[in-house]
Every structure is written in structure tokens, then in C-alpha cells.
Amino acid sequence: MFFAHRAAGFTQCCEQTKTLECLNKRPFFLSIRPAPFRQTPCCARAACRPYLTAAVDTDNGRCSSTTCRTTAANRSEYENSEFDDDDCSSEFSPRNFLFEEPTKYRRVMLKLSGEALQGGLGFGVDPVVLRSVARDIAECQVRGVQLAVVVGGGNYFRGANAWEGLDRATADYVGMMATCMNAICLQSALESLGVPTRVQTAIEMKEIAEPYIRRKAVAHLEKGRVVIFGAGTGNPFFTTDTAAALRAAEIEADVLMKATKVDGVYDCDPMQNPNAKRYERLSFEQVAQERLGVMDETAITLCKENHIPVLVFDLLQPGNVLRAVLGHDGIGTTVDE
Fold first, then answer.
1. CA 246 to chain centroid
2. Has residue 22 been placed in a domain?
3. What is the pLDDT of residues 16-62, one digit of tens each?
4. Integer Cα distance of 169 and 235 in angstroms
5. Is the pLDDT confidence value at 107 over 90?
6. The domain spanning residue 302 has which CATH number?
7. What sequence ranges are listed for the domain Aspartate/glutamate/uridylate kinase (predicted)?
8. Per-position DSSP letters for 208-269, written without gaps between them
9. Which of 7, 12, 46, 48 is nearest to 27 (CA)?
10. What does R_g of the chain's alpha carbons equal in angstroms?
């Protein structure tokens, strides 16, 4: 079998029809390499994704990528089986591969700030930020991390800051629709990278998303799919931070990661005070006593009662999501017991 590079004007070819069928289901790109490489069947099948650039040196037949190492058993399993769409995210999951740096968490709830998604545009979704976030999520997912996402809607509308004449409940429902728009945008960005993704919403909209069902969400995660939760809790007067904490408790997440516009929790507003101190670690009690505004009180209480640590970090720094999942030091502020 032989693959030629498709990136940067190169073309891709394959001698096996089965692998071509696999590639036709998902976009697939290989990074440009200075020497000839070929892709193994198991890599093509298990990862069919542009962000997993696992290539095998033709001399020794072993994977040269630092993010993927294949086995003879995997290759044999691929060659003797039929391909279907769910295989990439179930029996041929990224957990079949070994990585040099293990992840710290098995199941992660990622809360994405809507305001951070707007980047420098001031409104809507910045495509550059969206692609960067999608790539980070893809890098986590290919390492076998079960990743659920709650997106805010502040880049479109904030119910708490509704204009005069619009009551709070109505404004919150408008904000829920904004979170669904962000969820669909993120789903599209992830699927363009070949990441299996499902959107579940707390308010039914069957034409564009699944209704939220806890057991189904967990099943998706266990099959390697990224699950994006939209519409908050489905009820007014609750923030998307509370929705993230609630969903984290329901799916039994190991950590709630809040990706926002700032690189952690400060003792005062760093935008107004250049001498503001950033905390490396806080307790739930300290957050409540000092009213540090990490999340609203309901969300903090849910996390505390369910023993879910919270990590607050900067979304706009490329690679931060992956660094946080890997457990690198110095990424944001950790809030725990």
C-alpha cells in the first residue's frame, strides 16, 4: 500500500479499495515529510483524521510519529474486518495507540466562553479562534480522552444584560439559542477535522441536534465521540457555568475546565490593575469567602459537592486545552478541595 501526500498540492493514492472507502468517509491529510513514508492500514482506519499524522517509515514498517505507534495485531484486525462509520470511534478507538506523554484525565468537561470565541471580532465567532479550539480538542480526543463541551453564548447575547423591555426569562431563552449556534459551529469545525461529534440540547430541536439524554451522552463519550451540550440547563435564570457543572456531575467527569479570556483567577481585575495577583491554586471555600468570581455560586457548589476540580485557563493561547488535559504545570488556576 502506498500513500502520497495530499497536503500543499500533493495527491493521495491507495491500492486498497477498503482503505479508500475509509478515507472517503472522513477528510484525511498527512503532514509533509522530507522522506518517503507510507500509511499503515490500522492508522488509516483507526484515525482517518487530519490531525493524526502517523506515518510509517518504509524501511522498518514502524510508526515514526510521536503520537501513534501501531501493532501487528491492529494491522491484522483491520485487514480482516469490514469498515463502518462507528468503527473509527469504538473498537478502533485512539486508545489502541500509545503516546509518549499520558493524559492526566480520562473524562473532561470543557466549558468554552462564548466571549472568547469571538476573538477580536467583538461579535459572533472568529474562524481563527474556532479552528484553533477545534484542533486542540482533536488532539485531546485522539489520545483517548473522553471530551464533553458546554459552550456559552456571550458572543451573541447575554440574558443577564438584556436591554430594557425584555424580561429576564425571555432574555435567557434567547441566550440559550445563542449557545446552540456556537455548538453547531464547533461541531462543524470538529467534523471538518474528522472528529466524530454529537450535539445534544436541553431544549428539543430535533432537526439539528439530539435531545439531551444522560445515558446516551455517556455512551457517545465511551465510543470516542465529542459531545457538545447546548441550550444550557434548558431553564432560565441558570448560567452556562451552572450547566457545565451540572453536566460534569451527570457524566461523572474527572475535571471541569473553564476556558475563558483570562489565564486564571486573580485577586482583582487584571484589566484594570496591572499589579493583580494570579492564583495558582484555590479551595472552594476560599473562592466563596473572597467572592473571586470563578463561576457563579451554584456552579461552585455543584462542583464542591460532587468533588469535581475546576481549572480556569486562557482559551486564546493555542495549545492550552491540550496542555491542560496533559496536566502541565502553570496552566491557569486550579480550584479544588
1. 18
2. yes
3. 333 333 433 433 333 323 333 333 333 333 334 433 433 333 334 44
4. 8
5. yes
6. 3.40.1160.10
7. 107-314
8. TSEEP-HHHHHHHHHTT-EEEEESTTSSTT--HHHHHHHHHHHTT-SEEEEEESSSSEESS-
9. 48
10. 21
